[in-house]
Structure formats: structure tokens, C-alpha cells
Amino acid sequence: MFTWGVSTSSYQIEGAAREGGRRDSIWDTFSRIPGAVANGDNGDIACDHYHRYEQDLDLIKWLGVDAYHFSIAWSRVIPTGTGAINKTGIDFYNRLIDGALERGITPWPTLYHWDLPQDLQDRGGWNNRDCTKWFAEYAYQMAEHFSDRVKNWVTINEPFCSAWLGHLYGVMAPGIKDLQIAINASHHLLLGHGLAVKALREVSQESNIGITLNFTPAITLGSSDEDQLAVKLADGFDNRWFGDPVFKASYPKDIVEAFNKEIPIQSGDMEIISTPVDFLGLNYYFRQTVAYDANSKPLSYKQVTAPNVERTGMGWEVHAETFTDLLIRINSDYSPKEIFITENGSAWDDEVVDGEILDTKRVSYLERHLDAMFAAKSKGVPIKGYFAWSLIDNFEWAYGYAKRFGLIYVDYKTQKRIPKSSAYYYKDRIQKS
Ligand code: FCB
Q1: Which is the catalytic residue, given 343, 351, 356, 396?
Q2: In angstroms, how far is the first alpha carbon of the chain from the final one?
Q3: What CA–CA distance (Å, rounded) separates 247 from 109?
Q4: Pocket lining: 126 vs ligand 1, CB cutoff 6 Å
Q5: Digit-coded pLDDT (tens) for 194-212
């Protein structure tokens, strides 16, 4: 059976930031830094999903999907990150999970979608090796509470973003700009993943467990050997740095050499990181164009703007064929048992006209990417499911509410949800499949 689904994440939709015993996550703190998030937006209210989850579950059911991929806010269930469980937080996810199951929807939680409890950041966060243990303990607790009903788990979403965007470029929480700290964080995120796989399996042997990695293939417009090297470096930094440890138990040599920094690997780490997973969660949005640049740090390449290409509201190039090629390549490089597309989607400047949102560009993006995915599937890539990003418009991190990725429109003033044309398209395509 092919699984159709929709994805969201806790900080982006839940709101109720100071309710029910929840404490701050690093995204609450980051959002308070002047200039960190567009328009000074934050996740205090977001889509108010914490209170409106029943309505959102009804919409998910209406879409006709099989599964709902959401994330658990660590600081809602263990407010200080370690120690005491917050029953009110657990109850919220119990209601969400039960509500999904009652509607015939399979719950697919991610344990970590970037909202580290601030109390743990104050103890060093992912730069501190202990964070791997805190995460594994949290994973264990979640399995204890939910694995009677939850059978599919994603440990960590896009460690690329947490590590590089959060600790090297500082454009996401916790807003650090330090290569050594970013490298430490990347290793600890991956190690935390491996330990969490073990913890989840310890509680629930029948669990289906994976990690979600985002892959951004690179091309160059240049023809020099240096530009080819730029492509290889970009691929190493974005893709192989996270895929190789999980599937090959090693970091890519070329990038290790180019970084010329210490990687805090201790004996046994790579075995833990490469603990076999049941599936790879793969996120794909766009391809990047790069050129060699000896002055760029930490690696000798820079992003360039390819002319005359189609771009989304994020400025991301739309290139569906890349999705097919990527899936074939990941299958041949890593041979994951199964692949689930855990996110794919696009942002556009949606407009409500006479109560309708005719988002033809999103429909076209969705259609082309679904076709591209099925093209790879027909070539033997073991793709078992597709989750559209996103169910509803939501807090798009440093872009705030300015970027809309939803199949369903959210009027943030009234919290009214309106299905866009893309929601009807998706519903129809699932029905016909
Ligand atoms: C991914 C994130 C998700 C969302 C989309 C647009 O990188 O996992 O939360 O922001 O991009």
C-alpha cells in the first residue's frame, strides 16, 4: 500500500506557547531577537492548532490522506528537557493521536523538528554531547507513552538545518555562527538519532523508525574543473555530510579535509549513528546552482542565481526532474529499505478572491513533483509514501507568516481555514490513485 499524507511541525502550527505547562524552546527565544524573524513574527499563536486540532484532523480526513506527519514539542511534554514529564502536554498528544486514529488516519510523529527546550540550550544544547542522551531519554519516554498506538516514528527532521542554519549561519535558532560548534552539533544530532532508534526499539520492537534528511542537489553553469569541484563540495556539505554517516557509517572524506576541524567522534559513535533504520524520510524542495569561489567559507563555493528559471515564492528553483534523479541516486548510494517523502511543497503569494484561493502554481508544482516521484518509483526506487508540505499555512521559521506553504489557507486574524485549489487537486489525485 502507498501512504498518502500531509506534514506539519509543532512550533509552526501549535501556538499556545505558554499554556499547559509548556516552557520555552529555542525558537521562542530566537523569535524574540530583534530582526531574527521577518515582521517580528513568532509562534505564540501560530495556527492555534493546540486548540483547533479537532478541526484540523477533520480537514485531514476530508483530504482523504492515510497519515498525518506532525512533530512533538519536546518542551511541552518534558518542559525542562530532562526529568519530569508534563501530563498536560502528554494529554494533548494523546488527544491528537486518538483523534487521528478515530478518523482512520495513521499518526506519524517526528520527535525533533528544531524546537529544543531552551533549558537544554542553556546547558549547551547540541554542542554538548550530553544532549544525545537527553534526546534518547526523551525518545524512550515518548515510546512509553505513545507506542501502543504510534507505530511510525521519525527521530530528527533535517539535521542539516539544525546544524548548519542554526549553528553556522545563525539564521535559525539558536542563532550561533561558529563552524566548530556547527560540526559538533551535526555530529551530536546524528548520534542522538542513533541512540533514539535504539531507545524506541527497546520499548517497541514493532516500530517503524526512520530519520528525515533534506537533499538539495547542486549543479553549476560553469564548465571549469573548479566549478565541478564546487558542485561536489555543495553536495558534500548539504547531502553526504548527513546521508553518509547514517548509511555508510562515515563522514565524507573530502568535506572532513576541507573543513579542517575536529569532529568530536568517540569510539562506537559511527556504529550507533548507522544503526539500521526501517526507512529514510526524504525531503525535497529545489535544486541549487553553485560556482567555485576560493574566498567562500567554510567551503570554496558560493550560490549563484541561475537566469530564466521558474522560482517559487521562496526564490527556490522549481525543477521536478531533479527529484526523479535524486531518488534514483539516493537509492543507489544508500539502498534504504524504504523511502517516504516526508516533505515536498512550495510557497506562493496566495490571494483570497471571492473566498477562493486559486493557487494554480502550487497545483502545477505538486502535480509535476508527484509525477517525478512516481517516475522514480517505476524505476524500482522503494518509495512507500508521500507527505505534502504542508497541511496548512504556518510559521515559516525566519520568514514568519509571510510565506505560505499550505494546501489549506489560514486567515491568521480569524484562524479560518480555507482549502486552496491545491487541496482539491491533492484530494482528487489520491482518490484516483
Ligand atoms: C523544511 C522544514 C519545514 C518547512 C519547509 C518549507 O526545511 O522541515 O519545517 O519549513 O522546509
Answers
A1: 343
A2: 11
A3: 22
A4: no
A5: 999 999 999 999 999 999 9
| CA nearest to 76, candidates 118, 31, 130, 40 | 118
Distance 17 CA to ligand 1 centre (A): 20
Nearest ligand 1 atom, CA 314: 6
H-helix segments, 32-178: 49-63, 74-77, 87-102, 118-121, 130-146, 159-160, 166-167
Q: In this predicted model, what pLDDT tens digit does every residue of 117-151 receive, in sequence order?
A: 999 999 999 999 999 999 999 999 999 999 999 99
The owner of cell 534518547 is: 136
Q: Is 158 a catalytic residue?
A: yes
Q: How far is it, in rounded angstroms, from Cα 24 to Cα 429?
A: 40
Give the cell for residue 44: 505564540
pTM greater than 0.90 (yes/no): yes
Output the furthest CA–CA distance in the chain (Å, rounded): 62
Count CA atoms closer than 13 A to 43's CA, side-chain side: 33
CB neighbours of 312 closer than 8 A, spacing ≥ 6? 286, 318, 346, 347, 348, 361, 365
Backbone Cα Rg of the chain: 20
Q: Tell me the C-alpha to C-alpha distance, in Å, between residue 416 and each of 5, 15, 202, 255, 259.
A: 22, 15, 42, 47, 48
In the numeric block, the cell 492515510 is attached to 66
Angstrom distance (rounded) from CA 194 to CA 270 = 9
